[in-house]
Every structure is written in C-alpha cells, then in structure tokens.
Design a protein that fits this description.
Length: 696
C-alpha cells in the first residue's frame, strides 16, 4: 500500500475537500509551492519559516548542521543560525566570481532539507505527520526535487506527503535529472482525480491580487477579468510596493524572486527589468539554474537588443551559462549563436567564444565532446583577450583563457602541457596584478593544478597543493573531498575519513563523500561504520550502482542475509535489470532455477559482464554440470583474465581430468600471487595424487 497521495485536477477548493475526506495523520503544514510566490524553494522555504523557532528550541544544533540549506532555501532565516559557511567568495565583487555550483547542487540541498525535516520530526518525539503541498505542478524545479526526494527516501517512515496539482499534466524539466518528480509520483503516491465544482467565492479583489492571483475560484477570477487594464495595474502597483517594502525593510529576500516580479510585470512597472537582473544574478550565484534560465528568458523578451544591448547580453549570457550547467548544451549553443548574430561588441564575442569552447570541452555529453572544436573556439577567445585595453583585466582574462585551454589539453591527454599553462598563468598574475586582485581565480588555478597533478599520479605533490588551496579557501568543501581522495590513494584511510567528514560539515550531504567514507572505513576493518556510510550513500542517491553493490556485498559478508535481500530488492526497484545486481541476487539465492534465471537475465542485459559468467559457472559446477561450468568459465576468463576465474576454471579442468589445462590455469594464478592452494593443485596436476576441493 502506498503511503503518499497525489490529488490532481479540479480547483484548489475541490482538492481541499478531497483532502478533508481522507484519513490522514496530523498535518504538519499545508504549503503553496507555486513559484510565483517566492521563486525557488517557495514551499521548502515556507516550511522552514514555519518550523524554525520550534526546531531550534528542540535541537539547537539543527541550524549549524543545515546552514547551507536554510540560507539558500529561506534566506530570511540565515541570521537565525551560526554562519558555519563563510567562504570568502561571498565577500568578492560579482565580477571576480569565477566558481559556480554544479548542477547537482540543488539535488544535494533537497537531500539536506529532507534530513533537516527528518531530524525535526524525531525531535518532536516521532509519530506520523502529513505534509500537504499545493500547486506542485507550478513549483520551481527546486521544490519539485525536494518533494521527489521526500517521496523516495526511506528514512522518513512516519511522513505522509500529499501532492496536489491542477489539471495540467505534471512534467519534468528538460536536461539530465538526478531525480524525477513524475516518476516518484507514479511510483510512490496513490493517485486520486477530482473534478471542478461551480463553487463561488466572495473573496476581496485586493486579497486575490496580493495572493499573486493564485486563487482559482470562479468568483475572484471573473471579477479580476472584468477590471480595466488601468484598474488591474493599480492593484498590482499597490501590491508591488507592499512586497518591495517587505524585501527591503523586513529582509523577505525570496519575495524578490517571485511576487515582486509578478506584480511588477502586471503593473507595467519600469523597475521590472532591474528586478529581474537582480533575481537572475542571485539565482545564478546560488546554483538555482533552472530559475535563472526562466527569469533570464523573461528579461531577454523585455529588452531591446539594439537600444539596450548590454542588459540584453547580461540576460542572454546568464541563460546560456546556466543552460550549460544544466547539461542543456544545445540550448546554450543556440543562445551563444543568437548573440553572435546580433552583436558586434568585443566583450560579447569574447564571452561567446569561451562559452562555446567550454561546451565542446566540458558540457556536451562525452560522445559529443570535441577537443578540436573546443581548441578552435578557445584560440579565438585568446586572440580577443589580447585586445583588452586595461592591463590588469587583460592579464586576468588571458590567464583565464589559458586555464580553459589547460582543460582542453587534459582532454587530449596532455597533462604536462596543461600544467605548464596553469603555472605560467599563476606566475603572470603574481607579476602583473596586485596581491589582492582576483584572489578566487588564483585559488581556482591552484585547484586545477592540483587536479592535473592527481591525474598524472603525482599524488604527494597534488596533496600538498590541495592543502595549500584549502588553507587559502578553508570553507569550500570540494578541497577537502579531493584531499580525502588522495589520502585514500596514499593508504591513509583514517585521515581520508576525517577529510571527507570535514567536507560534509561544509556542504549539503552528497553521496560520493558517504560512499568514500564507507570504502575507507572498510579498509580499516570498521564494518559497522562502513555499512552505515554505504547505506547513507544509497539513501541520498539510490540510482548509484556502486553504493548498492558495496552495501549488499558487505551485508552478505557479515551474514545479514535478510537485510541484504531487502537492500537488493530496493536496488532492483531503483535501477532494474542491472547485471551486477542480478548476479548478486543469484549469489544470495546460491542455487536452483531462480538463481539460474537471474544469471540468464544478467547475461541478456550484458553478455560482456564476466562476473555473471563466473557465477553461472559455479552454479553449473555445484549441479555437476562440468561441461557447462567449463564453457561459462571460458567466457569469464576471455572477458576478464583474473586469478579467481583462472583458479576456479582450473578446478573444473582438474575434476574433468584435463590436467594439462588445469596446470596451465594454476600456473597463471601463481604468476600474479602466491596462492598456496594453487601451488598444491599445480603439484597434484603434474604429479596426480590426493583429493581435490570444489570450485567457488
């Protein structure tokens, strides 16, 4: 039975009536998620504003643990919690910021918000609760991600989510998605359709307008439609002044991303363009890229590209860059191409050439990346940077361009050339700029140098460089994550765990860190912490195959077979038909027709997966089918000539009387490792005597 619910169709009052007739746990909150109110995180931010006082009273540590989530989803509350994140980049002028969040940033924030809600519900003493979200079909992508995460997570067993949508079809945004609301609604929620009634509402027009015209009752909608253009504009002008007062005098920052823009547009207010500019800048800086694209396109439509080219380009460039970050590279290229057709300005074409180079070097999916085209565009960009008049700006832009060229060299397997470019850039900035100029870009250059050193297996040098970067920029989590990776590579797992935990303390939760902690803990023989970390990695992103495999294999290893079966069932639900998971299932079943069927399905999904051939060979051996076992081990060895496959094939050869072939397999095992049993069996094959053991 599905715990969550999806009420769709009709008007809001109809959905509310349907809700009132349902047998639900006590309601924690009813939230309007329509992005017209507060833009990104309209619903999540409203929830935070409602619960923050009680949450901090019950658990004062919840604020510092989730500062990132609170500060971005509900910026009005940032002053309520200690600022554990204070990366110096936020003290820089916007022109100096050359580092932006990844497209997974909002997904990680959604998981952090879910963890905050989980912690708060536990602090309340547990017990079932209901969270109702209206207008989810009109929510920003950030709120849709948040709700999808709530629907999918298994560590909120007492929370019932009721998602309410209108008559329009719920769709996911374009581009690569870490989670799909459409899928999670279909998978996790009981759907219930309602129809619109002819209810008449006598609400005041002022209230209707102040509510961003979201009341869909026929009465106020009809009265609003009967107003003259001047009357409507006057109502929205009054609402706009009230909203702007709340933004500037009461610190209600998020209203500037929603209601202020709506009222300014309906009022025909001349401030709309500047309000949009500020909203786009904020969304871009905080990694709220889908909103930045939507708002930026609104800005583009309002600005004359000839009469006000600079502002038009500001919107167009923001849209293109954010589309790139969202893995929507073709759309980004269209923006750049349109600007190239319209503009003859040096600065515009400089940004276009750099942006196009990055599309081909980084943002297109792997099969469509093209280092040659990337180099062509970057060379054009470098030529344009040489024409910048201001010496300091020319030095910065030239070094920034060669930093991009270094990425292309890495793509073309030329790390030494990339290192030279980065080091020359660092030296040039030191020589031509004041020490305090472009501080963040200097750090980015050192960070990139550390990455190239790591790729070149110069691990100790890379570690020293990352530590230097972390010292200069101590609040950015990524530095510590990379330090953890290098410490693992150097065989220092305890220190790696500390580095990963430092990274997590400075960021929203992200699955890679938890997975790597699990691996490092397991290296130290710390099984329970490893299990907990693998489980958390699965919880944060259950589409990560390696997290599932490591978690299930470790559960099997410690004898927790029921838990392993449950984890495997969930894994196959999230990422079905994966040969790795089907092979694990066969291993847990250990024998019989069901195990063989799993292996047949695994090999149908991927005939080149060697482990499935090897496990099917072991199953055939157990059933006494030596010929079948030999054929499957042959296939496994042909795909992956690893010692364990060789050893087991040698056993089958030995049992089949093929002693020459068996001896060859055992000898191959001994070439790669000192295996006592392989040595003994080799002796048996060359001087036959004694008993033999089973394959497996």
């Amino acid at each position: 039975m599905k715990r969550h619910h999806w009420i769709h169709g009709g008007r809001r009052a109809d959905r509310a009536r349907a809700l009132s007739g349902m047998n639900l746990p006590p309601v924690l909150a009813v939230l309007d998620a329509h992005r017209r109110r507060r833009g990104p995180y309209t619903a999540a931010g409203t929830l935070l504003r409602q619960i923050i006082d009680h949450a901090l009273q019950l658990d004062p540590g919840i604020g510092p643990r989730h500062f990132n989530e609170i500060a971005i989803a509900a910026p009005e509350l940032a002053h309520r919690v200690p600022p554990v994140l204070a990366a110096f980049e936020w003290s820089l002028d916007r022109e100096e910021k050359t580092r932006y969040y990844s497209r997974l940033h909002t997904f990680n924030l959604a998981n952090g918000l879910a963890a905050l809600l989980r912690d708060h519900l536990r602090a309340l003493g547990g017990g079932p609760r209901t969270l109702v979200l209206e207008n989810l079909d009109e929510a920003d992508v950030t709120d849709q991600e948040f709700v999808a995460v709530l629907l999918r997570r298994t560590d909120l067993p007492d929370l019932t989510v009721v998602a309410c949508t209108g008559t329009a079809q719920v769709t996911d945004p374009p581009g690569e998605l870490p989670i799909s609301l459409v899928r999670e609604l279909d998978r996790c929620a009981q759907a219930r359709a309602v129809t619109a009634s002819e209810n008449i509402d006598d609400g005041e027009l002022e209230e209707f307008v102040e509510g961003c015209c979201l009341d869909d009752a026929p009465g106020p909608v009809a009265r609003y439609a009967r107003l003259s253009d001047e009357e409507r504009a006057a109502l929205h002008s009054a609402a706009l002044e009230s909203v702007l007062s709340a933004v500037h005098e009461e610190g209600e920052i998020s209203l500037g991303l929603g209601a202020a823009l709506f009222h300014a547009e309906r009022a025909g207010d001349e401030r709309l363009v500047n309000l949009l500019r500020e909203a786009v800048r904020r969304c871009r800086e905080f990694g709220l890229y889908s909103a930045a694209v939507e708002l930026g396109r609104r800005g583009v439509s309002l600005v004359d590209p000839v009469a006000d080219e600079d502002v038009w380009w500001e919107f167009t460039h923001a849209v293109a860059v954010c589309l790139s970050s969202l893995a929507r590279a073709d759309e980004a290229a269209e923006q750049f191409q349109e600007a190239a057709v319209r503009s003859q300005k040096h600065g515009v074409h400089s940004n276009i050439t750099y942006g196009m180079a990055m599309l081909y070097a980084r943002y297109y999916p792997e099969p469509r990346r093209d280092p040659r085209l990337a180099r062509m565009w970057m060379n054009m960009h470098i030529v344009l940077t040489r024409q910048v008049e201001d010496p300091a700006k020319r030095a910065f832009e030239s070094v920034f361009a060669h930093n991009g060229l270094a990425l292309i060299e890495v793509r073309e397997k030329q790390p030494e050339v990339a290192l030279r470019l980065l080091e020359e850039g660092m030296s040039r900035l030191d020589a031509e700029l004041e020490p305090g100029q472009y501080r963040l870009h200097r750090i980015v250059l050192r960070y990139n140098r550390a990455q190239v050193l790591m790729m070149s297996d110069r691990t100790e040098e890379a570690l020293q460089e990352y530590w230097a970067v972390a010292e200069a920029d101590p609040e950015f989590y990524e530095h510590y994550f990379q330090i953890g990776n290098l410490l693992r590579r150097l065989g220092r797992p305890a220190e790696a765990v500390d580095a990963y935990r430092t990274a997590l303390a400075k960021s929203p939760p992200f699955p890679e860190a938890h997975y790597n902690i699990g691996d490092a803990e397991l290296t130290q023989g710390r099984v329970q912490p490893a299990l907990e970390s693998f489980a958390e990695a699965v919880e944060l992103d259950p589409t990560r195959l390696e997290a599932h495999v490591s978690y299930i294999e470790l559960l099997v290893e410690v004898g927790r077979l029921d838990a392993a079966r449950a984890a495997l069932d969930r894994a196959l639900t999230e990422i079905p038909a994966r040969p790795e998971l089907l092979t694990l299932k066969a291993q847990i079943l250990s024998s019989g027709a069901a195990a063989r069927q799993c292996l047949d399905e695994a090999l149908h999904a991927d005939p080149r997966y060697p482990q499935a051939w090897a496990v099917r060979a072991e199953l055939a051996y157990q059933e006494g089918d030596l010929a079948g076992a030999l054929a499957d081990f042959d296939a496994a060895v042909a795909l992956d000539d690893q010692p364990s496959f060789r050893f087991n094939r040698g056993v089958v050869h030995q049992d089949s009387g093929n002693l020459t072939e068996a001896a060859a397999d055992f000898a191959a095992v001994l070439e790669s490792s000192a295996d006592d049993e392989a040595l003994e069996r080799l002796h048996q094959c060359t001087q036959p005597s004694g008993s033999v053991a089973h394959a497996g």
